[in-house]
Every structure is written in C-alpha cells, then in structure tokens.
Write a structure and sequence with these properties.
Elements (H helix, E strand, L loop, with lengths): L1 H27 L4 H6 L5 H10 L6 H12 L2 E5 H6 L4 E5 L2 E6 L13 H36 L4 H15 L2 H15 L1 H5 L8 E4 L3 E4 L5 H26 L3 H8 L4 H13 L1 H25 L4 H10 L3 H29 L5
Antiparallel strand pairs: 1-3, 2-3, 4-5
C-alpha cells in the first residue's frame, strides 16, 4: 500500500508541475503587472522599479524558476528576499539560505495583501459550503436510491429516475439563478425568509459579528443537486445488483426480516462505490462552487476568484487555481487509496 501511495503522490506532483507551467504561461501575457499596480498615470521610473521588484525585467525562463521557487515548500533565497517577501518558514545558510516555508503566492495588485492571506480567509467558507452540499447529497441520495430500488417499477421509482437525470443534466449556474430568484427573491418575504445574497456572518450593531447559517441553505442546495442525482442513481443500481446476489437469498432462507436483509446486508455492500465516489465529488464541488458562490454572493474562493478576474488581479487568480489544483490532486489520491483499500485488486 505504501508503494501504491508513493506512486500516486509522484504522479500528483507531475500533474501539479504541469498546472504550474500552464498557469504561469497563461497569465504572463495578460497586461503589464506594473501598470496594473500603479495605474496608467505612474511615471517611468516607478514602473521600472516595480518591474525590477517583481523580476519582470528577467528572461521568461528565469521568471518561471523564480515562480517555482516561490510556490515550492523547499526553496533557496537571498537573505534580503526573505525579509522583502515576509516569508514564513525555517531557513539556514549564509548569504543564500535554504529553507522550508509556506508557499509564497505573491501579493494582490489591488489590495496589496498577500494572496495567502486572501485565500486563507475565503477557503473555510468554500469548504463549509462544499461539506454542507455533499452531506445533503449523500443523505438524500441514499434515501431516495433505497426507496427507488425497493419500489422498482412503481411511479416512485420512475419519478426518482426522471428527476435524477434532470438534476444531472441541468448546469449548476442555471439552477443557481432559478433557485435564487424563486426562493431568495419571489418567496423570500412571505414564505422562506431566505436571502438571495448573503455571507456566513452578519454585523449586528450591538453584538458585532454574528453567525447566520440560514444563508448557507440556498447555495448548498444548488451545489448539491448534481451529486444528489448521481448518488441516487448509484445507490439504486448498486442496491438492485446486490439484491440479486446469492447471499441475499441465503439470508432470506435463514429467516431474516426484509428490513434486516436490506439495511444490514445489501445496503452495506451497495454503499462501497458511493463512499469512494464522495471524494471525487468533493473536489468537483469545490470547482463547481465558483459560479454558485458568485450567484449567491458567498464569500468563498469562487467569488474571490471571479472578483479578481474582473479587476485583473492575476496573483489572486493564479493562487486560487493552484489551491484548487492541489485540492483536486489530494482528493484523487485519497479516492485511489480508498478504492485500493476496498478492492485490493486495484493495486
């Protein structure tokens, strides 16, 4: 198992290196960072100083090496650069120091805050939204899938299959717009009490910053519809397959009740593909949250990235893409490990 995990980790590192190259290549030709920082009225000397500070006067290959050095946990820096970039880590050496540090993703062109600080503030909100969506999808998907399998051929089964196909087919951004308009605008004042836009916290004039989980409901439902449909289909097909196995007939022959056979024996084995699918869908939802967060004004990675694109704040966009790529790679490795643990033949 250790060799299997090591191989998957090395493959993940190669994928991440490819993402780094792609991100660097895409965003290097978009605008002049010095102009984006200082504006069009900056004098020539100031622009040159900014370009030198950001190493924009260096050849492209050298800029890429500097970028790799910045985002890598193991890096080599001149002593002066460590203080200029305010790097957090442990360094040893003389004029050039070798150290282990947190990845340095640069500073925002607009706010001048470090990209790490911006993403660290937004990332927990995205994780909370993703967890809420996947939890809702898992619980409802299992329930609907079991119901459809038990009532196979009935109107309940037909309706469940039809709505799950519809849920898979409709894009999340379209679903988000419809749900926001219906439940957060038309029906909000009289029935739902939910807001079309809102964040995890609100500011009370007397109590200060207050948690407001009801703002999580609409974006979590929107984000969870597609995995809900997938989990429903997976549960139904997997459970129907398990109910045809010999051990189910043996359990009935021993006198076990239908409820015990269904939930203790059949469902337990039917959940294996769903549990392993959760890790992949968790990463998918993280990427899918971009448009959902923007529609509902949810202050997560997605909204931060879209706002940064509108403002041409490329360091924030690049940092967001890298963070999402790392999360995808980690979830894919975890998914492969779960598959190998459940079914040793995968190794």
């Amino acid at each position: 198992m250790a060799i299997f995990i090591l191989k998957k980790s090395l493959y993940g590192m190669l994928v991440l290196l490819g993402v780094l190259l792609l991100v660097f290549t895409l965003f290097q030709g978009l605008g002049d960072p010095a102009r984006l920082i200082m504006g069009q009225t900056a004098d020539k000397a100031t622009i040159q100083n900014i370009r030198k500070q950001l190493a924009l006067d260096e050849p492209k290959w050298k800029q890429f090496l500097i970028y790799i050095n910045d985002v890598s946990p193991l890096s080599i820096y001149p002593e002066k650069a460590i203080f200029q970039k305010n790097l957090n880590g442990f360094f040893i050496g003389g004029h050039y120091k070798v150290g282990i540090k947190l990845p340095y993703l640069g500073r925002s062109y607009q706010s001048r805050k470090t990209v790490t600080a911006i993403l660290t503030e937004a990332f927990p909100n995205t994780i909370l939204l993703t967890v809420a969506a996947i939890l809702m999808a898992f619980l409802l998907g299992i329930s609907l899938g079991v119901l459809a399998a038990v009532k196979k051929g009935s109107w309940i089964d037909t309706t469940t299959v039809f709505t799950s196909i519809l849920g898979i087919s409709v894009p999340s951004f379209f679903t988000g717009i419809v749900i926001a308009y219906l439940f957060g605008f038309l029906l909000s004042h009289q029935y739902t009490g939910l807001h079309m836009l809102g964040s995890l916290y609100y500011i009370d004039p007397f109590k200060g910053k207050q948690l407001d989980l009801k703002n999580l409901i609409l974006p979590a439902i929107t984000l969870g519809i597609r995995p809900l449909a997938i989990f429903t289909q997976l549960t139904r097909s997997s459970l129907l397959n398990e109910l045809q196995q010999d051990y189910i007939r043996t359990a009935y022959a021993k006198g076990l009740t239908r409820t015990k056979v269904l939930f203790v024996h059949a469902l337990k084995n039917a959940l294996n593909p769903i549990i392993t699918a959760i890790t992949g869908w968790f990463a998918e939802l993280l990427a899918g949250a971009f448009f959902v967060e923007y529609i509902f004004g949810w202050n997560g990675i997605g909204k931060v990235t879209v706002d940064a694109l509108e403002q041409l704040d490329f360091p924030v966009v690049m940092g967001s893409v890298l963070l999402t790529a790392c999360f995808f790679i980690a979830m894919n490795i975890l998914s492969d490990v779960l598959y190998a643990w459940i079914d040793p033949r995968v190794k």
